Amino acid sequence: MYVLIVPAALPFVLLATVMGLSWWEDRILPRPPAEPAEVLVEVPAEALFTPAAPAQLAELPRVDTALTREVAGR
Q: For the whole prediction, is pTM greater than 0.85?
């Protein structure tokens, strides 16, 4: 009976290990030093929210005419 417990519990053990390592990384390990303030470039808030122009779609070939010609040619 104990032989069945190990394979059934293995995914939960692996999940707990990954979650524990994630917690360890977030809480225990030191963070890398932040960049100095003079290196950062200030970007106006308006520049962050301006949408890009939509791409112009080329005219697609008509599928029904190509299909009709192919089927009619058989």
A: no
